[in-house]
Amino acid sequence: MAEKWYEKSGEQGGAVVSSRIRLARNLRKYPFPNKASLEQKREIAQSVKRAIEESNSVLSNKLSFISMEELNQTQAVSLVEKHLISPEFAADRAGRYLMLSDDESISIMINEEDHIRIQVIDSGLSLDGAYDTANNIDTLLDEALGFAFNDKLGYLTQCPTNLGTGMRASLMLHIPAIERSRSVRRIAGNLTKLGMELRGTFGEGSDAKGALYQLSNRITLGLSEHTAIENLKNIASQIIEQERKSLEELAKGAELQDAVYRSLAVLKSARLMSNDEAMKLLSNVRIGMTTGLIERKDFAALNRMNEQVQPATLMTANKRDMQPQERDIERARLLREEFKDY
């Protein structure tokens, strides 16, 4: 079985959990999904599937084709928890399809808000590599299917906010010190003025779990993909540096040191663990690894646990519905096993 993207740790793994590139595209000869018939949506899905399978690229045997209608609600929500699809895509699954790579780094949503949403996600700070992969898929599908494009407006999308490049680049940042200083809202307001967004763990309208925030570009019209990515990296570097300095100061105090060591002890011994508590404790252990309070720097283990302890993902892995306490028991068992040698 291929190693998943979240089972690895990339560049600046303490502060940057993951990098994501998402491209919104539509086919020239079909109406947007909100106007397309169910039959047209199925035609679009089969066209995308054939374009991938008949290509000479490594993708031809790397991507699985999944009908969202064949998944149950728990399986669909698990894909949301892994950041592979949007909540909207999971909520109404009729005529919607997913192409997913075995390592879960590539997901192509078919008939979401747009005909095609190409997403590439990788561990750590790796926006350039993620973009290169997404761009290669974009070129392959455009040559085979023909995307809706206007010389003045760029790629045509159902929502005007995606016109232009149709690209959203984002980083999942771990910023507990900034969160503790209660300056997230102020920073988010300032970022809006710069064409950026700082949102919760699962995007728009969500809360931050375990001090994980999504930083992404808002502007897609009037600048190139490379400029948008560079702008995002520049802003992220400033936030990361501010976080580093604040965290170093906090780590000198007994309060944070106690939180780190106590969190590791609980992860190693608890028999019941709610999802919210797990995310908080994992965040504290990441702080410990980042600051050197915990010598072993295994950010990959934290990334893996962040994904595996989510409610629907737990139930999907166990292939059955589970009551809340059953999930809490299983979650605690997973965490004890992961951290037993720390």
Sheet with the most strands?
A: 8 strands, antiparallel
Question: What value does the average pLDDT take?
Answer: 95
Low-confidence runs (pLDDT<50, min 5 residues)?
Answer: none
Structural class: alpha+beta
Number of strands: 10
Q: List the total number of helices.
A: 12
**What is the N-to-C order of secondary-structure elements (H for helix, E for strand)?**
EHEHHEEEHEEEHHEEHHHHHH
In percent terms, what proportion of residues is strand?
Answer: 15-25%
Topology:
Layout: E1 16-25, H1 38-53, E2 63-67, H2 73-81, H3 87-91, E3 97-101, E4 106-110, E5 116-123, H4 127-145, E6 149-150, E7 154-155, E8 167-174, H5 176-180, H6 184-193, E9 196-199, E10 212-217, H7 225-250, H8 254-269, H9 275-291, H10 299-308, H11 311-318, H12 324-339
Antiparallel strand pairs: 1-5, 1-8, 2-3, 3-4, 4-5, 6-7, 8-10, 9-10
Quickly list its features:
342 residues; globular; 8-stranded antiparallel sheet; alpha+beta; single chain; two-stranded antiparallel sheet; 2 domains; Creatine Kinase, Chain A, domain 2
What does this protein look like?
By secondary structure, this protein is of the alpha+beta class. The protein has 2 domains: 5-245, Creatine Kinase, Chain A, domain 2 (2-Layer Sandwich); 254-339, no CATH class. The protein has 12 helices and 10 strands. The protein has helices at residues 38-53, 73-81, 87-91, 127-145, 176-180, 184-193, 225-250, 254-269, 275-291, 299-308, 311-318, 324-339; strands spanning 16-25, 63-67, 97-101, 106-110, 116-123, 149-150, 154-155, 167-174, 196-199, 212-217. It has an 8-stranded antiparallel beta sheet, covered by helices on one side. Strand 3 (97-101) and strand 4 (106-110) form a beta hairpin. The longest helix has 26 residues, at 225-250. The protein is globular and about 65 Å long.
